[in-house]
């Protein structure tokens, strides 16, 4: 293992950076090949249509180039990555049936059995496969489906096939094609008509292997007049080599339904985090993305809402924190196809220790989307002279019956602010933390309590020594 030496990791700065020596049940040669796809399909016992879909997606990935505006990714060595690896044969629905060494990994991550009592369902994926997936009986009796995406395809083929790759086809972008070729794990969620799933469904994605590619696929369908809150966390060990995380999330929010998707991605700085997330909103539907991005070598992620039904509302709250060696290229997309829809983007970014944070956003109002209203707020906080923040907003408005607002600000932690707080007996480090926590408060207050506490802790660790 080429794990980083202790002096390469600041003590306490990234507690998830450990790795465990887990026995591998499935392993394949490195590189994105059709032979790997055949192995995956055989191991999983997938139908012929999925095998054909995977092969076609790999051909698209191999032919497709990166957009010119996406620098910093051309040095990825795809041939050095392992595209399927698993320490488990199948997912367990009892925590006691998960192999002991994997349970120890999740205990170290704080995914304790006691936390399961606070959740409607819990999934735990390590490398390519789900090690654990379960749902409370009370939700199951209401018809709520919460499975790994692999099991969803087998047990509910009609619902699965109707929605799979319909909002994000492999042609969408190079990394969506890569995921489509090698996807494994992730979640399949179906909320029946009229059912309110008020208890969150939660999944934790863990990369343990070195030079590995994790390609989970999440598919959520909220039927008419239903509600779902899905919570996701991620982490990986610290290695001296690079890994790749290229996920796809597809969400369908049907008439009068509501969905909230909360993510805190806390990858180690050797992970390329390249994710495509998209929701289709139907009549009077509501979609809320709450998106927190910390860690990673490079993040490229723009959660999006496509308003395809009249009266839909899409909301994206985005927080990105870039520390030394990181480039967070995060943002959001709102696309309007139907009239009388509304949307809001609230983006916050923090740059420190030479990190770079970029907001890249798209608001597109098509001509038939009359009387739509959009508000975009984009704020950046730069903590030192060697850090950087960029903003790349794009607005495409067809017709003259839309109201679109865009507001942006860039600020730093000024000497006046620090002097004011320090003159009242507050230590400099605590003063910086107060300023940063006040800046991100509009996003953090939307997080579940345990996530809010954790993200404040992580950002405070990243920001230590950023000023002065």
Task: Describe, in plain words, how this protein is organized in 3D.
It contains ten helices and 24 strands. The longest helix has 17 residues, at 428-444. It has a domain at 6-301. A hairpin with a 2-residue loop joins strand 3 and strand 4. It is an alpha/beta fold. It has helices at 34-44, 48-63, 100-108, 137-141, 149-155, 157-163, 174-182, 415-422, 428-444, 449-463; strands spanning 26-27, 85-86, 121-126, 129-135, 145-148, 187-191, 196-206, 213-214, 217-222, 227-235, 243-245, 248-253, 258-267, 271-281, 286-295, 298-301, 304-307, 313-322, 327-336, 342-351, 356-365, 372-382, 388-397, 402-412. 22% of the residues lie in helices and 37% in strands. Mean pLDDT is 88; it is low at 1-12.
Nutshell version of this structure?
This protein has 468 residues and is of the alpha/beta class. It is built from 10 helices and 24 strands.
Q: Could you give a short account of the major beta sheet?
A: 12 strands, mixed
Low-confidence stretches: 1-12
The global form is globular
Proportion in β-strands: 35-45%
- Helix percent band: 10-25%
Q: What is the first-to-last residue Cα distance?
A: 37 Å
Task: From the alpha carbons, calculate the radius of gyration and give it in angstroms.
Answer: 22 Å
Task: State the assembly state of the protein chains.
Answer: single chain
Please identify the structural class as seen in this structure: alpha/beta
Task: Let me know the average pLDDT.
Answer: 88
Count, helices: 10
- Work out the number of β strands: 24
